[in-house]
């Protein structure tokens, strides 16, 4: 198995992306450079007050290409009203290439090394804007990283079959992290927002602190000098500035002392920050708004589609439509890696279940409000006249492929009279079962193919480059002659759900880290 070299965390040795996986040394805490999430929430809370200094703030924004990979999943299917979901990747960079970043942690030896995406969260806003889902990816997770091309140097980074999730950022920039998420999940990412870790200090100060809670006194510090340094008494406390960073970086001291516990602390911070921003009357004060806008735009790197304050403002208006209680935070289910228990790999069944719900725009809080699709008027051609191409997508997600699944389903269609059906041996890039077509005149044909195999009409969608009618047989249909009856879809317990409606959540404290 190929992959990247793993970091020697106790010594602070930086990661490098290579083709050989070496056994890691003991783990130690690193400062999490989380803040993209904070920015998204900042926009969520400040949308109604407008924006200031349009040209000046535009100049504050740094921009980078959205996608550095070679392939992209098909766009999401519009709902009955023509709306599509929004998928935004929030990235926290651990760059220490500024004086401010270096002052907050790390050594001078870290200056100039490729940054790591130590925090990654996919924020999904439903097509109807009624709910929002967040999936966090623990940085220690071993996943495939696709080939990426640096947009500046034109250096081509080869595909890695298995590597630390946070290494993607150093392989050309945030666009490679976006490409990695799309490869992993089959979810098209519309935008990214990235902030280095000094940004969280400025923004936490700008809003006056974020209330967080611990069940017991906590001190994130080990005898060997590791830990975030967070020291809090039991109860609820507002954190800001460097203390906010300590909260977001804490591994030693929360829950079981792993990166998973750290993502749970970030979710609690997110929930609290949303409430703080939406309820705080100071946000109507122009002076406060000016300070927030300066802090946010100065800290942010975005894709070209969010490259102006107006575009960020428009996005914030979309985010603001989601009620706080309809926000659901989750962590991608993982399991210890067989080759190294200090690393994680996606827990295939639970991870695929969670990802497929987001990919299909299913609300994670169980309160779907999707509108029915209108009746179709496009007639289908006779089955024998419809050219159909079948692709296997059972291995495009988080599971192993089913051998010759495309051939088996192509045979089923021929039995139904679709005699011009062929099996395409090229693997599909999207993991969910879909019927794809190009051009409005083929929609009726695509619906006829779906109906023959009991595939829901919602799985039929138009794309730009479908050859004939294309049936992708995904991970959700690995066997059988008919697409399986839909079951009530529930988020797996291993995803550690935290609802935006929770106001009483407190972090559990790891044994040995109380005082």
What does this entry look like structurally?
This protein is an alpha/beta fold. The chain has twelve helices and 23 strands. The strands form seven sheets. Strands 1-14-9-2-3-4-15-23 form an eight-stranded mixed sheet, with helices on both faces. Strands 19-18-22-20-21 form a five-stranded mixed sheet. Strands 5-8 form a two-stranded antiparallel sheet. Helix 11 (405-415) links the parallel strand 18 (388-393) and strand 19 (421-424). The protein is globular.
- Main beta-sheet strand count, sense and barrel state: 8 strands, mixed
Helical segment count: 12
Structural class: alpha/beta
C-alpha end-to-end distance = 44 Å
Choose one word for the global shape: globular
Describe the oligomeric state of these chains in a short phrase. single chain
Spatially, the strands of the biggest sheet line up as 1-14-9-2-3-4-15-23
**Average predicted confidence as pLDDT:** 82
List its traits:
alpha/beta, 515 residues, 8-stranded mixed sheet, globular, disordered N terminus
Note the topology.
Elements: H1 36-46, H2 54-60, E1 62-64, E2 86-93, H3 99-103, E3 117-125, E4 132-136, E5 142-145, E6 148-149, E7 156-157, E8 160-164, H4 174-185, E9 191-196, H5 198-206, E10 210-214, E11 218-219, E12 231-232, E13 235-239, H6 241-249, H7 259-279, H8 286-299, E14 300-303, H9 309-320, E15 327-331, E16 334-337, E17 340-346, H10 348-359, E18 388-393, H11 405-415, E19 421-424, E20 434-437, H12 443-452, E21 460-462, E22 469-474, E23 498-499
Parallel strand pairs: 1-14, 2-9, 4-15, 18-19, 18-22, 20-21
Antiparallel strand pairs: 2-3, 3-4, 5-8, 6-7, 9-14, 10-13, 11-12, 15-23, 16-17, 20-22
């Amino acid at each position: 198995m190929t992959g990247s070299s793993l970091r020697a965390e106790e010594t602070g040795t930086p990661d490098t992306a290579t083709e050989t996986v070496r056994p890691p040394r003991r783990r130690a805490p690193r400062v999490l450079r989380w803040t993209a999430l904070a920015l998204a929430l900042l926009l969520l809370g400040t949308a109604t007050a407008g924006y200031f200094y349009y040209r000046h703030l535009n100049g504050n924004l740094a921009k980078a290409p959205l996608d550095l990979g070679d392939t992209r999943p098909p766009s999401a299917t519009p709902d009955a009203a023509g709306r599509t979901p929004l998928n935004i990747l929030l990235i926290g960079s651990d760059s220490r290439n500024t004086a401010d970043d270096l002052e907050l942690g790390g050594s001078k030896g870290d200056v100039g090394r490729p940054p790591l995406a130590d925090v990654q969260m996919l924020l999904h806003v439903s097509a109807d804007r009624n709910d929002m889902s967040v999936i966090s990816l623990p940085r220690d997770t071993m996943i495939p990283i696709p080939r990426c091309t640096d947009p500046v140097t034109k250096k081509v980074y080869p595909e890695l079959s298995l590597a630390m999730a946070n290494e993607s950022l150093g392989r050309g920039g945030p666009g490679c992290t976006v490409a990695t998420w799309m490869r992993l999940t089959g979810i098209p990412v519309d935008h990214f927002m990235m902030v280095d870790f000094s940004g969280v200090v400025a923004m936490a100060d700008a809003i006056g602190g974020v209330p967080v809670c611990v069940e017991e006194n906590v001190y994130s510090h080990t005898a060997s000098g590791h830990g975030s340094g967070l020291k809090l008494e039991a109860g609820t406390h507002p954190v800001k500035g460097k203390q906010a960073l300590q909260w977001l970086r804490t591994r030693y001291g929360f829950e079981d002392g792993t990166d998973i516990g750290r993502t749970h602390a970030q979710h609690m911070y997110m929930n609290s920050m949303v409430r703080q921003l939406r309820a705080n009357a100071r946000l109507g004060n122009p002076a406060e708004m000016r300070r927030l806008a300066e802090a946010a735009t100065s800290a942010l790197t975005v894709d070209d589609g969010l490259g102006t304050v107006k575009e960020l403002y428009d996005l914030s208006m979309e985010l603001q439509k989601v009620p706080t209680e309809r926000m659901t935070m989750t962590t991608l289910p993982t399991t210890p890696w067989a080759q190294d228990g200090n690393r994680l790999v996606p827990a295939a069944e639970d991870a695929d279940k969670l990802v497929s719900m987001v990919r299909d725009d299913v609300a994670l809080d169980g309160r779907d409000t999707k509108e029915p699709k209108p009746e179709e008027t496009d007639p289908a051609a006779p089955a024998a006249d419809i050219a159909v191409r079948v692709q296997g997508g059972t291995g495009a997600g988080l599971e192993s492929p089913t051998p010759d699944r495309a051939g088996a389903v192509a045979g089923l269609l021929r039995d139904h009279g679709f005699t011009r059906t062929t099996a395409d041996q090229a693997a599909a890039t999207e993991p969910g079962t879909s019927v794809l077509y190009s051009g409005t005149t083929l929609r009726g044909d695509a619906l006829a193919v779906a109906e023959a195999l009991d595939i829901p009409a919602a799985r039929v969608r138009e794309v730009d480059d479908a050859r004939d009618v294309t049936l992708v047989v995904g991970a959700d249909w690995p066997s059988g002659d008919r697409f399986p009856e839909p079951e009530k879809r529930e988020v797996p317990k291993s995803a550690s759900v935290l609802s935006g409606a929770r106001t009483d959540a407190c972090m559990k404290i790891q044994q040995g880290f109380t005082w």
